């Protein structure tokens, strides 16, 4: 690994420690694992956003005895000071650099795999697909893995359905203590944070179009409306569209919404959500951002073909000029806006997501016999334990059922 400037290493260390102060659940797991060493001898290859919160997750894995190698799961999400501190202060080999091209990005993933992992940890499934397609000789040593995000779970389920997935993977994203909080409150706040840092836009009085009303889209819509914006939701799922209507939002096709929006934020996990017909209908100066994992939701490739540019108008904002002079502005090259233009989710919410990751890895490491290849839910006991620990860290107490209440809920004899 290259050497890093001392001031960069020190900045990374301070920022990692700051995030750690807001991740009490993960810190508690780390302290327990330092004594028990439940991951002793386990090799873990991880492909995650290299942020301060991720640093505290991999520190926890290392405290549990694991040999960890980390690469980035997005070229613009890497925080270089965190890379420096992980390598120099914490001794965790981390292969990442902000703004790398595609070749270097995948080279880093291959470096993270070189030690021959027993377990994998992924955010978007790029490591898993690289392992299956480019380094299949390592598959024999892999017992299981975890996946952090919606897009990755979608890809892995597609692999499983085609019979291509070679080992079991726990869908951490689907844990209730992950998607109900990380996706909704984390993405809701951090996506808006990225937009505001990049643009200094006033949301009050603006029309914000949110593409997708899953948990990420709900969080974004909720935060935009809370800051005074008129919010339009676009959807392809009739149930989610109906939910958005019942939650008080306008719901329209994107082609109609394109003519009305001042700011567009995609959160669908799909491709070409905003493309040429939409660009042509947009207002002069429309701002586009993506909160989905991959940079395919806003069709920047087509925009490049039909418009002049890009012209950098602010840090993280490129302006494109269509024939006739209309301007469209794209934040973070259409990549994940909360990390391309800001710092990602707050540590408090990643505390729960990464506690799920850590405890799911421990669960996998304990299995004498692994499940068949496929995508599996986080065990219910882990989900509940993460919620219990988080409440405890917040000094919140709740009621417990009486024995009579337990009998009532488990029986069927009592009626009206």
TrEMBL record:
SUPFAM superfamilies: Formate/glycerate dehydrogenase catalytic domain-like, NAD(P)-binding Rossmann-fold domains. NAD(+) binds at residues 149-151, 183, 212-217, 235, 291-293, 338. Its cofactor is NAD(+). The keyword Metal-binding does not apply. It is found in: Cytoplasm. It catalyses: S-adenosyl-L-homocysteine + H2O = L-homocysteine + adenosine. Residues 183-344 form the S-adenosyl-L-homocysteine hydrolase NAD binding domain. Substrate binds at residues 51, 123, 148, 178, 182. InterPro entries: Adenosylhomocyst_ase-like_sf (IPR042172), Adenosylhomocysteinase-like (IPR000043), Ado_hCys_hydrolase_NAD-bd (IPR015878), NAD(P)-bd_dom_sf (IPR036291), S-Ado-L-homoCys_hydrolase_CS (IPR020082). Its EC number is 3.13.2.1. Pathway: Amino-acid biosynthesis; L-homocysteine biosynthesis; L-homocysteine from S-adenosyl-L-homocysteine: step 1/1. Its main location: cytoplasm. The keyword Cytoplasm applies. Binds 1 NAD(+) per subunit. Keywords: Cytoplasm, Hydrolase, NAD, One-carbon metabolism. May play a key role in the regulation of the intracellular concentration of adenosylhomocysteine. NCBIfam families: ahcY, PRK05476.2-3. Belongs to the adenosylhomocysteinase family. This is Adenosylhomocysteinase. It comes from Carboxydichorda subterranea. The lineage of its organism: Bacteria, Bacillati, Bacillota, Limnochordia, Limnochordales. The gene is ahcY.
């Amino acid at each position: 690994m290259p050497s890093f400037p001392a001031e960069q290493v020190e900045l990374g260390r301070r920022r990692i420690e700051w995030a750690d102060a807001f991740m009490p659940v993960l810190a508690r797991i780390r302290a327990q694992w330092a004594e028990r060493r439940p991951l002793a001898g386990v090799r873990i290859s991880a492909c995650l956003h290299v942020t301060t919160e991720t640093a505290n997750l991999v520190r926890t894995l290392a405290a549990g005895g694991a040999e960890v190698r980390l690469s980035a799961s997005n070229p613009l999400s890497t925080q270089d000071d965190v890379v420096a501190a992980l390598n120099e202060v914490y001794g965790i080999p981390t292969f990442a650099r902000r703004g790398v091209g595609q070749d270097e990005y995948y080279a880093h993933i291959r470096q993270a795999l070189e030690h021959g992992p027993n377990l994998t940890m992924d955010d978007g499934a790029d490591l898993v697909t690289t392992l299956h397609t480019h380094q299949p000789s390592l598959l024999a040593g892999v017992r299981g893995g975890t996946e952090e995000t919606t897009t990755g779970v979608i890809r892995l389920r597609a692999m499983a359905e085609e019979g291509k997935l070679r080992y079991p993977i726990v869908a951490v994203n689907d844990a209730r203590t992950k998607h109900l909080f990380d996706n909704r409150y984390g993405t809701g706040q951090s996506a808006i944070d990225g937009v505001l840092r990049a643009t200094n836009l006033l949301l009050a009085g603006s029309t914000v179009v949110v593409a997708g009303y899953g948990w990420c889209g709900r969080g974004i819509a909720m935060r935009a409306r809370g800051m005074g914006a008129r919010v339009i939701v676009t959807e392809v799922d009739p149930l989610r569209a109906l939910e958005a209507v019942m939650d008080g939002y306008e719901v329209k096709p994107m082609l109609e919404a394109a003519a009305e929006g001042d700011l567009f934020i995609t959160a669908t996990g799909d491709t070409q959500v905003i493309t040429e017909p939409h660009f042509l209908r947009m207002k002069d100066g429309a701002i586009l951002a993506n909160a989905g994992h991959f940079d395919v939701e806003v069709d920047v490739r087509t925009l490049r073909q039909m418009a002049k540019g890009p012209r950098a108008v602010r840090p993280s904002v490129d302006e494109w000029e269509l024939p006739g002079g209309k301007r469209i502005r794209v934040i973070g090259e259409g990549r994940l806006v909360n990390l391309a233009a800001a710092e990602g989710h707050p540590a408090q919410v990643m505390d729960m997501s990464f506690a799920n990751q850590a405890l799911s890895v421990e669960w996998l490491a304990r299995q004498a016999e692994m499940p068949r290849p496929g995508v599996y839910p986080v065990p219910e006991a882990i989900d509940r334990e993460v919620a219990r620990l988080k409440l405890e860290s917040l000094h919140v107490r709740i009621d417990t059922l009486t024995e009579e209440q337990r009998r009532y809920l488990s029986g069927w004899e009592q009626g009206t």
